[in-house]
Amino acid sequence: MATMTTPAVTTTVDLSVQSVRDLNSALHKAREGSWHVTRPDGAHNLAVGLDAPLDVRIDGHAGYYCAGMNQHATVTVHGNTGVGTAENMMSGTVRVRGNASQSAGATAHGGLLVVEGDAAARCGISMKGVDIVVGGSVGHMSAFMGQAGRLLVCGDAGDALGDSLYEARIYVRGRVKSLGADCVEKEMRGEHLEDVRELLTAAAFTDIDPSEFRRYGSARALYHFDVDNSSAY
Amino acid sequence: MCGIAGIQVRDPALEPRLGWLLAGMLHQAAERGPDSAGVALYGDALLSPPGHASVSLLAPGMTPSELAERVGPDATVVPVGQTTVVHAPCSAGELEKRVRAAGTGATVIGRGADLAVLKGVGHPDTLAEEFGLRSATGRQGVVHTRMATESAVTPEGAHPFAVADDLCLVHNGSFANHATLRRELIAEGAEFDSANDSEVGARFVAARLAEGHDLEKSLRLLCERFDGFYTLLVTTGDTFAVVRDAIACKPAVVAETDAWVAMASEYRCLAGLPGIENARIFEPEPEEVYTWRR
């Protein structure tokens, strides 16, 4: 069994031997270092609540809420993740090499979430400042009620993209199945191309041309109650 | 919250291990539904031997030997935990008639050419032991763990709901308009065994199949009529089907290899399957009916 003290080198935690609680307790005590998590087998709550600049690599598929509430840490999942990946992240970087299930990046305030594959429904729901970059496509109701931050989708978006959006910026390279209430396509100006370039660079998706993206945002018609909009509320 | 998992085996070499695989899946689904659980087995060597149809019962109200005596000399009665399975070399319809004629007052919870249904109240791992699940065999199986929301925790209220020959349905979610649809189905002649909303879904699918629709079409019709949240795994003797409602907030993950196709509420239920590391894994899209035939 690995010794869980602050490591000078990479510490390996085998979840077929140690518990998720063992892992998370050790990660919460550490202030620095690299961690390698093996045999996750879809376990929930891996590497949640980190608040130090740790580097955590998870080899295999993770369950729900992986890297939730992350601050400062870099968490890379070499596999798929379940519901609520990096939910309420504050800072740091979470990268999923496979696909992420629904509600990836939900309510996240900051940091960078990269999903190299597809993200399912409600990606970036109620996002509050996070940057989310999805290499594949996102499911329906993505960026629902998004308040701040940027969602960049290199593939397609499902139904009702950006429904009831506040101020988050959405960039989609492929087809948008439908826009949600009060979400509209907007002009791509120079600053937006710069946004896209910055996000693609941050995600290391360097072979994609920023000019291929279209921008979507809030029409700001639902901000305040208006009786003429009652059917849209 | 409830937990669903199921597998259709394509490689016959896995058939002797079906129960072992299902027990692992059930264990991983236990936290999603610790109050009761159920299992459906297609082709178990003990509960539905080749050439024998099976009828599964709750609370037969008499000893196995009394029941065997009443059903007939060719019938075998197998008590399995809170469930009793009767099998005999005749059609499922005939066996069900004979079982009902035995006057036991038992609830019939499954019937089919080779379908056995086991369910009960208790922790899923305890029930798996009661069912002897690890040693079960077969070509297809489904497990369900229930966290009851809209009706009582009883063996009758546990899933699966197997309300027509070789048909089995498990549900994670809640139907909002089940009372209306229950009344419609009763008006069409359906009889219900429980107050569970999921049984309404099963009776609806059974009614559509009885009208001549195939399983895929029946599930499309269910999507048109049922309001609420659902991820459903529905099986017949040769088909394994998955469908989710339009919102798709109830989880589902499918994994497929040359040797099997499996579905579960959570990936961890599938993590122990042989060859999972090379499986094609995806989440079913909302209101899309997925079917696999064997």
How would you characterize this protein structure?
The complex is a heterodimer of chains A (233) and B (294). Chain A has 233 residues and is an alpha/beta fold. Chain A has a single domain (39-220), classed as 3 Solenoid (Pectate Lyase C-like), CATH 2.160.20.60. Chain A has helices at 20-29, 190-203; strands at residues 11-14, 34-38, 55-59, 74-78, 93-96, 112-115, 128-134, 148-153, 169-172, 183-186, 214-218. In chain A, strands 1-2-3-4-5-6-7-8-9-11-10 form an eleven-stranded mixed sheet, covered by helices on one side. In chain A, strand 1 (11-14), helix 1 (20-29) and strand 2 (34-38) form a beta-alpha-beta unit. Chain B has 294 residues and is an alpha+beta fold. Chain B has two domains: 2-42 and 117-293, 4-Layer Sandwich (Glutamine Phosphoribosylpyrophosphate, subunit 1, domain 1), CATH 3.60.20; 49-113, Alpha-Beta Plaits. Chain B contains seven helices and 16 strands. Chain B has helices at 18-29, 64-71, 92-101, 124-131, 178-187, 197-210, 215-225; strands spanning 2-9, 36-42, 53-58, 76-80, 83-88, 107-112, 115-121, 140-146, 161-164, 167-175, 228-235, 239-244, 253-256, 260-264, 280-282, 290-293. In chain B, the strands form three sheets. In chain B, strands 7-2-8-1-14-13-15 form a seven-stranded antiparallel sheet, covered by helices on one side. Chain B has a five-stranded antiparallel sheet with strand order 9-10-11-12-16. In chain B, a hairpin with a 3-residue loop joins strand 11 and strand 12. Chain B is globular. The chains are: A alpha/beta (233), B alpha+beta (294). The A-B interface holds A 41-44, 61, 63-64, 80, 82-83, 99, 101-102, 120-121, 139-140 and B 28, 248-249, 251, 253, 266-272, 281-283, 285-286.
